[in-house]
Amino acid sequence: MTRWVFERQELVRFGHCDPAGIVFYPRYFEMLNALVEDWFTQGLGVDYAQLLGPRRVGMPSVRLSADFKRVSRMGDQLTQRLAINKLGRSSLGLTIQFDAPDGCRVSFEQVLVCTSLETHRAQPFPADLRAALEQANDKQE
Amino acid sequence: MTRWVFERQELVRFGHCDPAGIVFYPRYFEMLNALVEDWFTQGLGVDYAQLLGPRRVGMPSVRLSADFKRVSRMGDQLTQRLAINKLGRSSLGLTIQFDAPDGCRVSFEQVLVCTSLETHRAQPFPADLRAALEQANDKQE
Amino acid sequence: MTRWVFERQELVRFGHCDPAGIVFYPRYFEMLNALVEDWFTQGLGVDYAQLLGPRRVGMPSVRLSADFKRVSRMGDQLTQRLAINKLGRSSLGLTIQFDAPDGCRVSFEQVLVCTSLETHRAQPFPADLRAALEQANDKQE
Amino acid sequence: MTRWVFERQELVRFGHCDPAGIVFYPRYFEMLNALVEDWFTQGLGVDYAQLLGPRRVGMPSVRLSADFKRVSRMGDQLTQRLAINKLGRSSLGLTIQFDAPDGCRVSFEQVLVCTSLETHRAQPFPADLRAALEQANDKQE
Question: Which residue on chain D is closest to C30 by alpha carbon?
Answer without folding.
Answer: D26
